[in-house]
Amino acid sequence: IFMDMVSGRDVALALLGVGGAVAVGSLLLRPVSALPTVNFRWTIGAVNGDISWAPTYLENCYTVLKAQLGLDLSQPASWNGIPNPLPVPVTVDPSADCPSSVGGWAGGIPPALGFCSGNWSQGPYTHWILGHELCNLLTAVCVSYDWPPTWWANSSSPFPILSSLEAMRTLGLGVEAAFMESILSTETCYSMFKALLTDFGWPLFQNLFQLLRNDRVNLSTVDSSYTVADYLQRAAGQSLATYFAQCPNIATYPPYP
Fold it and tell me: What's the rounded Cα separation, in Å, for the pair 130 and 195?
């Protein structure tokens, strides 16, 4: 299982800094068991705010992320022992567990998603975290678990941040995405991913994932940082040294070609 959590302290400070853009909800929902949608099966604890929008948003976000990344949960990396996760179990923990924060996780066998928020009213934080963890699930299930933790996802998570924010923009939430980017763009190596997306577009990452799938790479059994940097250059068809220079956590990588 890989964990991708925003600390309660950091997000609480962010919430205090937006002038009430995310209000504290007054609606307490009773636990709902196994609420179904097309691709996800929701189990919702007692939460603050109206969460009824979230299942539809996650489905819409999945449609966008599939197109961005070229990945589909119905095509898992079975050679890495990953089963077809559909419909994906989604667990929403009680808001009392995270009263002033938002966070989530993705992974496990069988694969699943989990979220927690002090308030589930629609807003930039709740929109962002759903797409963020869905991106993590897609790359784990369809390619491999254990992406580079210091510059892809986990202790530093620039790629799922970027993917979720771009999905928000596609779904008409550009103002919210810009607000979240103003907070999260300081994430280590985010500038590198932003530059790669600007210069190469999503096909770069689609090629990366396809090359890793073709070679049946298991990032859990190799140096994931070195391997992903190597395959990124192969996907680009050129040296990415000038981009990697923006990401000090990419310590070593092979020359290209």
Answer: 24
pLDDT tens column, 217-250 = 999 999 999 999 999 999 999 999 999 999 999 9
Please report, as a single letter, which amino acid is at residue 237: G
How many other C-beta atoms can be found within 10 angstroms of the C-beta atom of residue 79? Answer: 11
> Which of these ranges, 14-28, 140-154, 158-172, 225-239, has the smallest mean pLDDT?
14-28
The predicted model scores a pTM of 0.87
Which position has the higher pLDDT, 75 or 37?
75
Contact 51, 127 (CB under 8 A): no
Q: What distance in Å separates the CA atoms of residue 257 and residue 244, rounded to the nearest whole number?
A: 15
User: Distance (Å, rounded) from C-alpha 78 to C-alpha 87?
Assistant: 16
Please work out, in degrees rounded to the nearest 5, the angle formed at the alpha carbon of residue 77 by the alpha carbons of 107 and 104: 15
Of 142, 67, 151, give the one whose Cα is nearest residue 106. Answer: 142
Closest by CA position to 171, among listed 58, 30, 50: 58
